[in-house]
Amino acid sequence: MISTLREFRRVGRAVQVLVVNQFFMKAGFYMLMPYLATHLTSGLGTATWVAGLVLGVRSFSQQGLYVLGGMLTDRYGARRLVIAGCLLRTVGFGMLGFVDSLPSLLVAAGLTGLAGALFSPAVRGCLSEHAGERRLEVFALSNVFRQSGVVIGPLAGVALIALDFRLACAVSAGLFLALTVLQVRTLPRRPYEVEAAAQPLRGCLPTLLRNRRFLCFSAAMTGSYVLSFQVYLAVPLQVRRVLGPAYSGAGMTALLVLSAAVVVIGQVRVTAWARRRWTPSQALVRGLVIMGLGFLPLALAAAFPYGDLDHGLPESLGEPFDLAPTLTAVLLLAVGGIVIYPFELEMITLLSDGTYFASYYGFYNTISGIGMAVGDFATGAAWDAGKRAGGPGLLWFALVVLGAVSACAVAAVARVRPAAPAA
């Protein structure tokens, strides 16, 4: 924590505002969104498909429009897009607490997703611009604040929703309104300037699509998103399988808090250590390998079940022993994510060749979102197939392989040099 505070003091005022912004954005989001489906089905009495539709609209409006947010940032400036995004999320979260018709809920969900599509590429582009040569350190600092918000948000949300869901919506909306005012007062007024800023928007997308190294890199890195998202998909299912429904919620909460604590405590130090030893691509390869290896203990435990071993331990230790592979997976996913996050953003900046920073970030997020959706569907199908076969061992081995394949793909992209410009 001392190294994090020291790094925070080193950066400029604009970066300080942006990373604090990241904390409150994540806290405000996770204060509400994890509990929205329960509110819709239990509080409003909607069908499950309605809750799925509302959540799907939110996800699609964010993931699908990231590239638009990036392009608008490069054209009109990060300050305007960050302010617009915070304001839209204020309206969207406020609506979610006080509307009950399907059209209104869809509008509210769409606004919250669009808000994220606007301010996320803008914040990353603005961080890249203001960080200068200290991009890696700033990206690491940003992740510390983001993960802190991920921990604080749900805890605050539980307390507020115990009183009233509308109160949670009002507090979250008020938080984003305060962020809107903060951005208006503190973010620099000068436009977000890159070499291509004066070019029309129609030149942006062709530039991105011609950058084959960037496209290949984006495709290769989708594996990291599929792996990291298992903390919210396959890992909770495994925790429920081991601990049962009565204790799975508490067990999963403890694992998520532990994961976030690893990031908060280790991010800045690990980034500084890795920067001295590895290039960005080398760091990414190692991070992907670590994430993939996180699922190896689960795969081995599925192949050699605890109950079949002559372990000689008391029966009361069975459940903790069975949970150990899951704990290992969560810890290694957190460590791999620590290694990957700042170098991932650094690689995107390097591949952008100094132009269209935010558009590259936005397009990258859109590709990652598509890959993650496909990966999540495949994960769910593999889990169901594993249940029919007696256990999810095949899924865990597949995730280990995915980490290795993604690492090899990133290494291959790094070995390809950009073509020399025509004479």
Automatic annotation (TrEMBL):
Matches recorded under Pfam families: MFS_1 (PF07690)
All copies of domain Major facilitator superfamily (MFS) profile, residue ranges: 14-421
Membrane topology: Multi-pass membrane protein
UniProt keyword Transmembrane present: yes
KW Heme (keyword) present: no
Domain of life (superkingdom): Bacteria
Keywords: Cell membrane, Membrane, Transmembrane, Transmembrane helix, Transport
Primary localisation category: membrane
Locations listed in the record: Cell membrane
A GO term from the CC aspect: plasma membrane
GO molecular function: transmembrane transporter activity
Transmembrane segments: 39-60, 81-99, 165-182, 214-235, 247-271, 283-304, 324-343, 355-374, 394-414
Protein name as annotated: MFS transporter
Organism: Actinacidiphila oryziradicis
